[in-house]
Give the backbone structure.
Amino acid sequence: MTPVALAALVGLAALVLYAVFGGADFGGGVWDLLASGPRRAEQRAAITDAIGPVWESNHVWLIFAIVILFTCFPPAFADLATGLNAPLCFALVGIVMRGTAFVFRNYATDSPALVSVWTVVFGIASLVAPFWFGDAIGALATGRYAWLSPFALSTGVFAVAVCAQIAAIFLIREVEAPELREDFRTRAIFATLAVWIIGVLPTAIAARQEPALFAAFLGPAALAAIGAAFALGLVVMFALARRQSFVARIAVGCEALAILVGWFGAQAPALIPGRYTYVQAASSSAMIVAFLIAALIGAVLLVPSMLLLFTVFKGPRRAGDAEPAPDDRS
Amino acid sequence: MEHVIAARAQMGTSLAFHIVFAALGVGLPLLVFAVEGLWLRTGDRAYYALARAWAKGMAILFAVGAVSGTILSFELGLLWPEFMKDAGGIIGLPFSLEGFAFFIEAIFIGLYLYGWDKLSARAHWLCALPIVISGALSAAFITLANAWMQMPTGFRIVNGRVTDVAPLVAMFPRPWATEVVHATLAAYVFTGFAVAGVCAVAWLRGDRRRQVSAGITVALTLGAIALPVQIIVGDVAARFVAANEPAKFAAMEVVYRTERHAPITIGGIPSGDGVRYAIEIPDLLSILVGFDPNALVTGFDRIAPDDRPPVAATHLSFDTMVGSASLLAVIVIGWLVTVTRRRPLFRALGVAIALGAPLSFAALEAGWFVTEFGRQPWIARGLLRTSDAVTIAPGVDLQFYGFSLMYVVLAAMSWWLLRRVDHQNSRAQQGDPAQHFPAAL
């Protein structure tokens, strides 16, 4: 494998990790906005506890993806930042407002008015960011930066649905109370249905309006990825029905992986269809090799730190913490 | 608004906003690490109270810093694509390393802020250490990229194309050492005086609990150590600029004519080719530059008009930085004299320490203005002009207004909350607010 291909794969990996973990945090914000029923406050508290310790490090995958793009494929970064200037700005507003609103509402505890204002901002911003990132990827795929095209807008909606799906499934295992688990399980089932229904949209729109893109959809890589994503969606649904939330968690992560790998594979070797292939956009091999070495050294420090973070906050609950949950026992 | 002006205004506003949170993100973990360590060592609850209060501040500041930093990483491309098109492949290495440092920082911030009850006291304290180290490294890596913009190196241009990129050479351009040390120390100076100032305000309002005076002592200790070193490094940096970046130096010190026995110009309003209302001290600039009244100082007459930085902005920023730092030094001396004589804090000193917060803020921002105004009209000196680097995407002025409005809201809310943190702290110790969240709904 060439260093350029390796750098592209590292970039893809960062994007997938951002989609899964950052996506789960955005989805958490969506469910915060949609919190309802008798356990509304408990749902929000569970979302806050789940996101709190990890959202900042999950967010770094995005910075990482951007840095890889401008270090290893700088002309593509310049071109993309020009063509997708508007949707990226909107996504940035979403990112900034999501993160700050989350912290503001958690620390403004003695002012209920401010807490409710920032709770609404947090929820809306959690919709805005994935929508415009999804839109940007869709617009990129059109090859003409058509970020207001129905296709790009539909990929934006699809991205929000996937984030909501990932979050609901992740949240099932974050809570102890059986009723709360049921709340998130119901939401996960609805979100999975929504992903299927909304997932038809980009394909249908591409068939009518984006002939070049639709042809790419029918290529072997894309077909395999779409098939895999759909099959994994079935696994998710089946696991949710059988209350196997751990299986659902793995399956939904793989579903996001299949969608992004499918997109990547369908347009490869193009990085920006019709403008740059990975090789055309690549910076000097000295730079790419230096980056890969830095990434290797960084990973040596990063992986154990990350494991520590997730073990402390997301690891198995200590014995006697709670009664055996009905979930996962069937 | 003209395209390039709007883009510069937006980048400048974003950086001016971010630098406050970034500097506190570098300095505050060190203070938190110190007070929690003091608590573990002495068992004094005042230090524990400080650690809890400052950690809350750190949580708010870090979140705003992280997202405003994200804006900047995108803005490199959103505003300056013509620059990043070539520069990204040359100075990507420090940015990549910063990505990792920031990652480690974010992970341990999560562990530190949410781990009070999940980790042993000692393990929790040690979680602050990676934040201290990676915070300083993040700042250093970003400053390396800035140093490259001042004196680009590590590549060749053949037929208008960048070639022979040497990433490690590009990572350490000539001003790297002075810039990195100066910028990192600036974060410590600012944090020390800002935190001491906040504590001093509480003290002036009549809060006489031990944690308030202990907070002043710990934070001013950081300021008092960092400031003298910073003044020496700043002096070395200025001499480096005089020798290697004559246009910037001429703007900093408003030198119009190349001459020996150059006077130093303090304050004043530069206009046309002279300064009005300035204080001039004969020979001093020559002495400062070359330790000799006869030393030659390069002026604007040797620099093409198109290559001159904005004089008034650069010079007044420089004088603001030097002036604020000098006043901070006076405050430190006053405090040290009081402490060494074992005298208690008195009102006038309290007021002075409180004023240290806005002064150190001014020094931080003005110092950064000097570097950046002084680099103009270049985005990468000698290589690419700022006006040639700007995006062709429409609506940059709308972007500027929109983002500026957002910064105003975020700054106001952060300010309100940080005052609240202080206030909550002076009423009673509370647990982690996240645990109180359900009750607030």
